[in-house]
Inverse folding.
């Protein structure tokens, strides 16, 4: 056994080379996994305004849209478990949100402003606990032919308290 | 009064920390042991001071001093005593105080150890602990003060401040807003302190690593001293993660336990580097290799711990808005950057002294497989980091906001997790220094064959999903290798000493706790893997509205809606509770009571599932909605989660194994000396 440890310089470089090759192969495999998984599952994160601008170019693609929930628009049909509501455009840029007085203020303003771009959302599933007026909704799904956004997942945040720590999540 | 007192205690602790840092550095410079002792005393002083500060907050919480903003934020009149006490870590300001209190407790415990043989480490361990502590105290005193009160001023809005502005009086607040009901769960009460314990204990090995780099005592002494600290840190971190998963499963009502949420990932990342570190220090101890790498891992773990503390409570990731509003974010990043760069500079300074004693020669040796394990853990870390940073990166480069969700993590990290499982089966059979495919094959063929037979049986029973079959094969392989190792060891003892088999097994594990504790942990991982395969690949669900007496089916199960009652409780909830009969293959098997609690004061509903849990599967029923007249019907969402209980059982076994590995030896110093190389053979004490 000892002989194999006290190797000559030639086999030593050979030993190092085989570790390098093995390591590089694994690193390459990991990089490949990251790149291919990113391409396969990256979702565009758009505001309501951006979605309207993009129009047909994003039809059929998986998207993530954020908006302010308009409380009066929330309708839930328990029989069919269909939830519909409308969200108003809110700015996507965090600096702008901060400059305008924080998330709560921005959401409030968005819901109050009648001229904001709006988006109708359809979701089938359990009514999420946190869905209420002036919540921020982050919806994952696709634009339908009916011009409504068909959400498969809803993520809701209410800036009133520290619910930030506990995202209410609903999957469907 | 009490608020001022607590705030004063924080300030004195802060000044003591600054003094301690200065005294330690001065003491080393001037070679004056009295100054080093003085710094140690300053370190010890911070603990009682921070205890007073924490007790002050608890007093304010329990007595309902709602004029203190933090108290109003996390407690209310209707909350029971234990929730008011634990509200100490219910919000950010209190959490930070709790963090510093734990930090002071651990650092004090370390400074009280016997230092005779490691005297040179002491001042630097104190410095690292106190630098960390004073950073958090700055955050608390200047930015997130839990003692800040609300003052009513003659004109305008109430002002939040520590001391009264001119002409102001304390605002009288009758009741607080109360802790978020989602957080009022036993799992959520223990979960944050467990994570924090894990985070804080990782500071100790880091402090010793830095001490080793500064003093130039770069042998593996720092690793041996902190081995148990590292295991304890890892134990708490693992426990925190598992409890968090359990809480999500019980409370969040989406039938899952882990969502690849950035906050979860923030707590998971130090666990990944910590796990890699636990494995790779063994190579340094046994073979004198990877000394640089171990330093890198512990430095990285420390940075991720601070990062994780910041992210898990501040809400920066899930709502980046909180971040921009306070100065706390940039300061945290500055601190992480500064400590990271300083640590790396120290490491580069000692780079040549940390050369390996030998070289790795065989690709199949145990050390090479451990190295591969490290590579895979790092791969998962990079995937996590990339996933969290991707939205930022893509916005910078393409000006488009893109995100990645759970499918990304699953498809990228899944193969690496499978690779780790495979290694768990192979590495225990490989020899140090040198193994060949032939020797490995000889050791592996029995468990290999056995695990294939298990998979064949699973296939025959009707599971044809290839990923599941691969997962089950890996689980069976690791389990049989591990159990076989126990069996072989016990049989060898039994043959040699004539001990009965159970006694031989007990003594075997007792003689080499790290190794056999590690194997128990591996068995825990296997059980968890079985649960994860079950719920991830075979979960089914359905939803629908049914009238009283009607049925709804899901696979072999069905539920019958029996009745529904709505009532108020004394603690301010309105509860809607359904009674549902559960049938399996049309046989009545029991009753479930899915609920929806509505908290009046916070206006927040909470869905509590009714769960029938067996080793085969969980049947998980959510009450979604109901008609005022209950005969009209109610809406249910139903999940069938196969094998998920094995996940929790695995978690228990995992923790048990960590306890075995971390359990104190009769005399740790003697054990350590025995295992060490001769140059440190003890002079008779």
């Amino acid at each position: 056994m000892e002989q194999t440890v006290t190797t000559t310089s030639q086999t030593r470089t050979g030993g190092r080379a085989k570790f390098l090759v093995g390591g590089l192969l694994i690193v390459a495999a990991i990089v490949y996994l990251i790149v291919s998984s990113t391409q396969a599952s990256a979702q565009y994160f758009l505001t309501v305004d951006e979605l309207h601008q993009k129009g047909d170019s994003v039809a059929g693609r998986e998207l993530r849209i954020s908006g302010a929930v308009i409380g009066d628009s929330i309708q839930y049909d328990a029989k069919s478990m269909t939830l519909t509501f409308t969200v108003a455009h809110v700015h996507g840029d965090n600096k702008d949100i901060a400059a305008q007085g924080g998330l709560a203020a921005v959401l409030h303003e968005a819901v109050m402003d009648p001229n904001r771009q709006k988006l109708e959302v359809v979701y089938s599933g359990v009514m999420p606990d946190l869905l209420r007026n002036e919540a921020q909704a982050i919806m994952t799904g696709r634009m339908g032919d009916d011009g409504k956004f068909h959400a498969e997942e809803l993520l809701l945040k209410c800036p009133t308290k520290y619910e930030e720590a506990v995202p209410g999540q609903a999957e469907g | 009064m009490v608020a001022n007192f607590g705030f004063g205690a924080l300030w004195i602790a802060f000044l003591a920390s600054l003094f301690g840092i200065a005294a330690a550095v001065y003491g080393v410079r001037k070679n004056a042991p009295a100054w080093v002792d003085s710094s140690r005393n300053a370190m010890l002083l911070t603990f009682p001071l921070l205890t007073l500060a924490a007790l002050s907050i608890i007093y304010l919480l329990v007595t309902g001093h709602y004029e203190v903003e933090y108290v109003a934020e996390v407690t209310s009149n209707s909350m029971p005593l234990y929730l008011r006490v634990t509200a100490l870590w219910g919000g950010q300001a209190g959490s930070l105080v709790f963090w510093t209190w734990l930090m002071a407790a651990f650092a004090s415990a370390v400074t009280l150890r016997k230092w005779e043989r490691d005297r040179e480490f002491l001042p630097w361990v104190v410095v690292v602990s106190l630098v960390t502590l004073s950073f958090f105290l700055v955050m608390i005193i200047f930015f997130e003060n839990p003692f800040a009160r609300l003052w009513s001023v003659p004109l305008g809005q109430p002002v939040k401040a520590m001391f009264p502005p001119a002409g102001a009086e304390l605002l009288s607040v009758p009741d607080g807003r109360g802790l978020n009901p989602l957080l009022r769960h036993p799992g959520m009460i223990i979960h944050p302190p467990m994570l924090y314990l894990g985070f804080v204990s990782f500071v100790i090995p880091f402090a010793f690593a830095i001490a080793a780099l500064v003093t130039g005592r770069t042998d593996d002494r720092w690793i041996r001293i902190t081995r148990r600290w590292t295991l304890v840190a890892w134990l708490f971190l693992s426990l925190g993660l598992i409890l968090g998963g359990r809480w999500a499963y019980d409370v969040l009502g989406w039938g899952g336990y882990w969502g690849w949420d950035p906050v979860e990932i923030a707590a998971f990342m130090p666990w990944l580097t910590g796990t890699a570190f636990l494995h790779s220090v063994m190579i340094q101890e046994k073979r004198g290799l990877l000394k640089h790498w171990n330093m890198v891992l512990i430095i990285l773990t420390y940075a991720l711990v601070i990062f994780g503390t910041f992210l898990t409570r501040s809400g920066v990731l899930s709502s980046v808005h909180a971040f921009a509003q306070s100065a706390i974010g940039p300061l945290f990043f500055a601190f992480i950057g500064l400590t990271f760069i300083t640590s790396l500079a120290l490491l580069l300074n000692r780079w040549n002294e940390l050369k390996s004693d030998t070289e790795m020669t065989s690709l199949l040796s145990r050390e090479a497989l451990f190295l591969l394990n490290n590579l895979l853990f790092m791969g998962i870390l990079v995937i996590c980091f990339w996933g969290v940073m991707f939205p930022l990166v893509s916005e910078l480069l393409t000006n488009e906001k893109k995100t990645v969700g759970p499918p990304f993590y699953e498809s990228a990290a899944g193969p690496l997790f499978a690779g780790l499982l495979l290694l768990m089966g192979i590495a225990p059979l490989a020899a140090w220094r040198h193994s060949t495919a032939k020797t490995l094959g000889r050791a592996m063929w029995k468990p290999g064959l056995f695990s294939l037979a298990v998979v064949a049986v699973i296939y025959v029973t009707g599971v044809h999903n290839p990923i599941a079959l691969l997962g089950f094969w890996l689980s069976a392989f690791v389990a049989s290798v591990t159990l076989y190792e126990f069996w072989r060891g016990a049989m060898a003892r039994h043959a040699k000493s004539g001990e009965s088999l159970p006694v031989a097994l007990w003594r075997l594990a007792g003689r080499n706790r790290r190794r056999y504790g590690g194997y128990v942990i591996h068995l825990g991982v296997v059980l968890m893997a079985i649960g994860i395969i079950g719920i991830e690949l075979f979960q089914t669900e359905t939803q629908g509205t049914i009238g009283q007496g009607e049925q709804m089916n899901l696979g072999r199960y069905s539920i019958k809606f029996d009745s529904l009652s709505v009532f108020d409780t004394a603690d301010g909830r309105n509860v809607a509770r359904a009674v549902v009969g559960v049938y399996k293959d049309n046989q009545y098997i029991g009753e479930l009571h899915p609920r929806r609690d509505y908290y009046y004061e916070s206006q927040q509903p909470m869905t509590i599932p009714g769960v029938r849990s067996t080793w085969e599967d969980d049947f998980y029923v959510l009450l979604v909605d109901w008609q005022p007249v209950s005969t009209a019907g109610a809406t249910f969402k139903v999940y069938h989660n196969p094998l998920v209980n094995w996940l929790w059982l695995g978690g228990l076994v995992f923790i048990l194994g960590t306890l075995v590995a971390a359990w104190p030896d009769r005399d740790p110093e003697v054990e350590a000396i025995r295992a060490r190389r001769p140059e440190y053979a003890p002079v008779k004490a």
